Amino acid sequence: MRLILLGPPGAGKGTQARFICQTCGIPQVSTGDMLRSARAEGTPLGRMAESIMARGELVSDEIVVGLVKERLAQPDCEAGFLFDGFPRTIPQAEAVLEAGIEIDRVIEIQVDDDEVVRRITGRRVHEQSGRVYHVLFNPPRVPDRDNETGEPLTQREDDREETVRDRLEVYRRQTQPLIRFYTELSRRAPLEYRAVNGVGDVDAVMQDVLKALGD
Ligand code: AP5
Ligand code: MG
């Protein structure tokens, strides 16, 4: 399975990606997580991306495409992968096509703006692993602690309400056109496009996502 998860910030891509990857035995390729690791390690790329991410803008296509190509060259991607948060612009999607990277299915998770803001402002993350929680909707077993390591959870720097609104605007301008791009591509390529209602509790959405993977 070679999958793309598409949807606005806070739609639940990262949350659903965990289940899909466990079920299908494929790695999660999250460009957001990769950029956050680079930032945490203080690499030149991480330092460059830091302020762009804090503003909720997009890192350059060239850099992100380079990162993904490097990641796909690793052996665990041979049997498939799940792109989470990539591609995010038409040029990125075109780069995937040009590189001959085949995609079997695109799953769009649909969530409205108010729900996005509710989800993102209550999100807590375990930076090292990328595990995601929500203070109300998906709380950790011990408040503010990661379920697996017990380490403290943090709030992402770009999760303030003003930045979330900017990220939604960036999504509409730069990423939403991919819905049409992949719907059209699905008419002439083996690729299949499925949209899933992302509003509902995590398990209900997971059931719909699994259905969209199976049918
Ligand atoms: P990225 O990390 O990809 O952020 P994003 O797309 O804004 O998406 P999020 O991670 O915010 O949301 P999500 O859909 O994963 O939701 P989650 O599962 O966490 O990118 C960050 C930045 O990196 C970008 O702004 C950009 O600067 C840069 N970048 C990354 N990729 C790039 C690219 N390709 N090109 C250029 N720049 C790039 O869920 C959200 C919350 O809701 C959580 O608290 C969760 O617990 C909760 N939740 C999940 N599901 C449910 C549910 N069903 N009901 C209630 N709550 C739920
Ligand atoms: Mg995410």
Percent of residues in beta strands: 5-15%
- Strand segment tally: 7
What is the string of SSEs from the N terminus onward? EHEHHHEHEHEEHHEH
Bound molecules: BIS(adenosine)-5'-pentaphosphate, magnesium ion
The number of helical elements comes to 9
Given as residue ranges, the uncertain stretches (5+ residues, pLDDT < 50) are: none
How widely separated are the two ends?
13 Å
**Mind summarizing the main beta sheet?**
5 strands, parallel
What proportion of the residues is helical, as a percent range?
40-55%
Short description:
The chain is α/β, with parallel strands linked by helices and 215 residues long.
Keyphrases for this structure?
9 helices; alpha/beta; two-stranded antiparallel sheet; globular; binds BIS(adenosine)-5'-pentaphosphate; 15% strand; 215 residues; binds magnesium ion; 5-stranded parallel sheet
What does this structure look like?
Helix content is 49%, strand content 15%. The strands form two sheets. A five-stranded parallel beta sheet has the order 2-3-1-4-7, sandwiched between helices. The protein has a two-stranded antiparallel ribbon with strand order 5-6. With 215 residues, the chain is α/β, with parallel strands linked by helices. The two termini are 13 Å apart. The model has no long low-confidence stretch (mean pLDDT 95). Helix 2 (31-41) packs across helix 3, helix 4 packs parallel to helix 5 (90-98) and helix 6 packs across helix 7 (161-175). The longest helix has 15 residues, at 161-175. It has nine helices and seven strands; from the N terminus they run E-H-E-H-H-H-E-H-E-H-E-E-H-H-E-H. The structure holds BIS(adenosine)-5'-pentaphosphate and magnesium ion. Magnesium ion is lined by residues 13-14, 32, 85.
